[in-house]
Design goal:
mainly alpha, single chain, 79% helix
């Protein structure tokens, strides 16, 4: 995720304060706020594919960062608490080993 400088973040401090005073409490409200930000971005840039692609990339990057920072660690805790799905672990290990066996067969 592209982190921005503290100086650039200062521009958005008032927005952060407003959102913290009236935070979204449902998925619909969260999606609404995201849609408003996207709309403002599109109103303030040229309406062209590159900018639409930038929106899609930003959403994908934010989703991946959310998963990396929140969902992944939560799932890891649940695995430690409840145990891993054993079959998946065995399959992954077997596929990993099979991949290395294929590499060992190749001549470079």
């Amino acid at each position: 995720m592209p982190y921005i400088t503290e100086q650039d973040r200062a521009r958005f401090a008032p927005v952060e304060i407003e959102i913290s005073n009236a935070p979204p409490t449902t998925a619909g409200e969260l999606q609404y706020l995201i849609a408003v930000m996207i709309g403002e971005y599109l109103l303030n840039t040229d309406y062209r594919y590159q900018n639409m692609n930038d929106v899609m990339g930003s959403l994908a990057g934010a989703q991946q960062e959310f998963y990396r920072r929140h969902v992944g660690p939560y799932e890891d805790k649940c695995i430690r608490k409840n145990g891993d799905v054993y079959v998946n672990s065995v399959i992954q290990a077997a596929q990993f080993e099979a991949g290395f066996a294929e590499l060992d067969k190749k001549e470079y």
